Amino acid sequence: MAAPPGMSSLPVITGLGFITSIGNDRPTVLRSLRELRHGFEPMEFFGNPNLPVKVAGTIKGFAFPTANWRDWTWPDKFAVDRELLRGLAPHGVYALCALQQALTDAGLEAAALTDGATGLFCASAGSPLLLGHFLDQMHATRGERGNPMGIVSSIAGTLNFNLAAHYKITGAVCGFVSACASSSHALGYAMDEIRLGRQQRMLVVGAEDMTAESIIAFSSLRALSHNPDPVTASRPFDVRRDGFVGTGGAVALIVEDAALARQRGAHIYAELAGWGQAGDGHSVAASHPEGAGLREAMRRALADARVNAAEIDYVNAHATSTVAGDRSEALALHGVFTANHAKPRISSTKALTGHGLSLAGAMEAAFCALAIEEQFIPGAAHLEETDPVCAGLDLPRTSLDEAPRLVLNNSSGFGGSNVCHVLRRPS
Questions:
Q1: pLDDT digits over 376-403, tens only?
Q2: Alpha-carbon gap, residue 334 to 326, rounded angstroms
Q3: Is the pTM of this model over 0.85?
Q4: Is 91 an active-site residue?
Q5: If you write DSSP's letter for every residue of 240-290 in order, what string do you get?
Q6: Are residues 190 and 89 both part of a single domain?
Q7: Which of 38, 91, 334, 355 is catalytic?
Q8: Residues 97, 180, 368, 420: which is the catalytic one?
């Protein structure tokens, strides 16, 4: 059932699954987005009260107190096979639970995934917690002993290794590593697999550990907020922002060819109308000061979707609440929208969730799909005093009962990787 030569299949979203700081299911996440309920709690990392980072976007109901999988716990409603658990990282548990939700939401059984027409694209940075633990074991025994599942549970491909084997995926399987743009790349290339007729269905999963090892390393970059107040620690575009709040979790999206989805009577959240990417060519870690790469990625996404800037109703900004990053994105938004007399609503849901690193793009694409489905626009939470660089941008302080037809989702990562998606209300 691949698309005939010269024709393009339309990718659509038919299933969503959430393990996030603002909820572990669709209804809770939706309520959090509508009511601007954040998922932050006070946090002491490494048992060290002297660390200046005091807040995190915690994942409720899950616990990973040690590197030993026997000590891990998760909500009873999720089925996690003990044998599978031996090869999983903490974020692999999140991912499995999110994917279970997404498949149920899409009305799919595991048996439907094995015929080669379904692929799996994943994104994560691996598990610093487990990698450090296994390396310590190796050094302690001078290489004479090691965990046979140590590699597959800890390195960056752990999600695709485990999920592909567990669900017996025989279609395209790949992992993406472009830092905070990783799951956005996974979603973009999943769209292309369907548009080119190579696959009929793609499972897209982004996940990250929520541990000290995953978050505190960013403190050395001076990227994390030192604000101890959970209410104001993450405030994108606010003049008093001082860094991002770390989080983890997982989000899964089921992306299908529209004809297949309609044939089987699947519910369609949104059409994936186009995507674009561009590099900054500037710095290994810092955003381009004028937002050059992100500006070009937005333009390419709009061109791919064959829409103009004035047609976009809502932009889910990457804005992480860092001083330089938010300024760069604001300038990029001006270059694409203000310069073209366009004024979409703009907010960053990281004000509620925190920054999920490689998970962020998939998580926020799923939020955009919910906004289209439920006919609302998430507000710019915690925004009190807007940075003057944002003058002229429409940053609503509350969620709005407006039905967006076209939505743009932005992501940026280390090395200047910028990825944008355009989502559209189903026709």
A1: 999 999 999 999 999 999 999 999 999 9
A2: 12
A3: yes
A4: no
A5: T---B-BB-EEEEEEEEEHHHHHHTT----EEEEEEEEEE--S-SSSPPTT
A6: yes
A7: 355
A8: 180
